[in-house]
Amino acid sequence: MTLHQGAVARPWVERILAINGWFVFAFLYLPIMVVVVFSFSGSSNVGIWGGFSLRWYDQMLGNQQLMNALKNSIVIALWSTVIATVLGTAAALSLDRYRRWVGRGAFDGLLYLPIIIPDVTMAVMLLLWFTQTGLVPLGRTSITLAHIAFNISFVAIVVRARLAHMDPEMEDAAADLYAGRWQAFRRVTLPLILPGVLGGALLALTLSLDDVVITSFVQGPGATTLPVYVFGLIRRSVTPEINAVSTFMIAISMVLVLGSLGFQRRSEKDD
């Protein structure tokens, strides 16, 4: 193929890729747009437009069970995110900076196991552990511990990716200037990996707020979270209130995703 033929063929390739990109976007986001639009419908039928109305949002805000589920989701997500971020960051640092301790290889493999195994399998394991040991009753605490268990892995992955691009000589320079290990970490390492830590925290928060399978296994009375509550509504009956709740959850997820993308771009610029 000559240079001229390649130049002529390239626009066609770009057009095909552009069409494919728009098709993928439509496939992913048109169903979401339908849910958002019909959440503002005044009709009692979930799929019929009945004029613009905020009726279902008013009903959502007045639903005490739903508000309790939202409160549970926020409390669990915040606690699990904070703890998982601390433990995940520590795990990433230990694996990246200290390579000769006993059991490192096994720990490295087991750390990412929650990402590989199916959610149902992990849910059954956690349920058996909670019920057989009796150390933690099923409720908010058991859900929080379950979310920490799978969020640690995701935080560790993000932080390790940040550490991989970090120059270790920066820490050596701090040591040469008589900085202790804690001072070097607080003044050099932590500021450099902070975008990765915050990105991992946002990812953990999003996963905690969206989880259904594991939470439904380890929840107890009065500890229903918002995703589990929505899933229960769908199983009982489909009403436009589900559209309003789903739109609210989509908005929260989008804010978290945009925040995570912002931190990632900031991290790339710093590099």
The pLDDT mean sits at 80
Question: Under the CATH scheme, which class?
Answer: Mainly Alpha
CATH superfamily (homologous) name: MetI-like
Number of strand elements: 0
Give the CATH topology. MetI-like fold
Helix content: over 70%
Which second-level CATH architecture applies? Answer: Orthogonal Bundle
Taking pLDDT < 50 over at least 5 consecutive residues as the criterion, the unreliable ranges are none
- Spell out the helices and strands N to C: HHHHHHHHHHHH
How would you characterize the overall build of this protein?
With 271 residues, the protein is mostly helical. It has one domain: MetI-like fold, CATH 1.10.3720.10. 79% of the residues lie in helices and 0% in strands. The protein has twelve helices and no strands. Helix 3 runs parallel beside helix 7, helix 3 packs across helix 11 and helix 7 packs across helix 9. The model has no long low-confidence stretch (mean pLDDT 80).
Quick summary of this structure?
79% of the residues lie in helices and 0% in strands.
Defining traits:
271 residues, mainly alpha, MetI-like fold, 12 helices, 0% strand
Strand and helix map with partners:
Elements: H1 3-38, H2 55-61, H3 64-97, H4 104-111, H5 113-116, H6 119-133, H7 140-164, H8 169-176, H9 181-210, H10 213-218, H11 226-236, H12 240-270
